[in-house]
Amino acid sequence: MSSQAVKIGICGLGTVGSGAFNVLRRNADVISARAQSPVEIAHVGARRDNPACELGDVKVSRDIFEVARDPQVQVLVELIGGTTVAKELVEEAVRNGKHVVTANKALIAEFGNELFALAEAHNVVIRYEAAVAGGIPIIKALREGLAGNRIEWLAGIINGTGNFILSEMREKGREFADVLAEAQALGYAEADPTFDVEGIDAAHKLVILASLAFGMPLQFSSVYTEGITQLTPQDVEYAEELGYRIKHLGVAKLSDAGVELRVHPTLIPEARLLANVNGVKNAVLVEGDAVGPTLYYGAGAGAEPTASAVVADVVDLARELSAGQSCRVPALGFASDSLQNLPIVAMEQVVTPWYLRMIAEDKPGVLSRVASIFSEEGISIEALIQKAPAEGETRVPLIVLTNRALQGSMDKAVSAIEALDSISGEVARIRVEVLDG
Ligand code: HSE
To answer: Are residues 92 and 161 in the same domain?
Structure first.
């Protein structure tokens, strides 16, 4: 154990910043034992203090760039979020020879390729365990624990806010807006909560996971993204009648055609573990050719769970610095000259079963017309529920569960169904994930 402290600088004292500060202080003994040297918070950069943490005599700068220029600081912890100032800060730190730890998924997903190249050129590393799934060590699992596997697919509940909202709506019948406000108050939601409910936050995380799983550059713009704002309490209820739960998933799947990268609501059979991940919890299911399916579960957001992942990266870097480690795991798990340019599969080519809900006239011939449209597109029906009409109503909800179908065929079938006089409005549709590959 070295007696010389590794000096870190923390930029940002929001939910995660204050959490990281407190965990580093509270667990200083185990952290230094694991890092093989004391870890000292040498400099904090924050526009304002946070009453959640007692800074004591730590040096504080209101200009966060002073931390990136401080010659004492060896590891800069970026916890300010966003992709403008945060990017400049990380670049400045890297150019000044500092390692970086960040929880910033948007920054890594959108600018990771160039930032990793810059870091490699300056012989420093950027670590980002906290960027995906909060406290779950999924980055380490993919980069190190599963390094002997070809990863075939992964599917995860990777937005805590969205899962919290869906769980509260299902279990307590609460309103969407009311649960979102609570998630914001608890510090789970992004600064712009549309990132959570429109699936952007999950898409950021999915692209990071896929890059690690398949050894490909980060391609955020290629992710198909659908949020949870269109889901209705009726869909939640009908899904349950059919034996499913609705979850918002990120799915990355490798096939001969390329990589599927998609974020959207899904029906999951209720017996699956993922279907039973509730509240702010996240879970990622990873299928490797050698290990088979593995599941990683834990808190996906919140101050200390996310700080747990930040501090794990700090400990890794402190250990490297104190032991002079030079053979590092590369940023995306694969050596940078071995990254693969895999094609992204177009959504029309993606095959899944489907849940559909439509409003139909309650009269003879409607069902057979709908069924014949499915048959013309080669889509087979797995289950069908027709609800009784409400008092004085001539229209009924019709819920259809199909077998696996190409999205392109389903698009055509849905357009043809929506064009029928006996069908009102749009057909609601949600993909089903059976999670068996
Ligand atoms: N807003 C994110 C979530 C925080 O709800 O999952 C963690 O990345």
So the answer is: no
Q: Are residues 98 and 210 in the same domain?
A: no
Which residues have a catalytic role annotated? 205
- Residue 189 near ligand 1, beta carbon < 6 Å: yes
Task: Let me know if 299 is exposed, middle or buried by CB neighbors in 10 A (0-12, 13-18, 19+).
Answer: buried
CA–CA gap between residue 141 and residue 319 (Å, rounded): 19
Phi/psi of residue 358, nearest 5 degrees: -140, 160
What is the value of pTM for the model shown?
0.94
Asked whether residue 108 falls in the same domain as residue 255, the answer is no
Give backbone dihedrals phi and psi of 379, rounded to 5 degrees, phi first: -105, 130
> Looking at residue 327, what is its pLDDT?
64
Question: If you search the block for the tokens 């569960």, which residue do you land on?
Answer: 401
Could you tell me if 403 and 353 are in contact, meaning their C-beta atoms sit under 8 angstroms apart? yes
Q: Is 160 in the pocket of ligand 1 (CB under 6 A)?
A: yes
352: CATH: 3.30.70.260
Q: What is the DSSP string of 386-398?
A: EPPPPTT--EEEE
> Which ligand 1 atom is at minimum distance from the Cα of 193?
1
The DSSP call for residue 26 is: H
Any atom of ligand 1 within 6 Å of the Cβ of 353: no
| Averaged pLDDT for residues 240-247 | 95
User: Tens of pLDDT along 393-435?
Assistant: 889 999 999 999 999 999 999 999 999 999 999 999 999 998 8
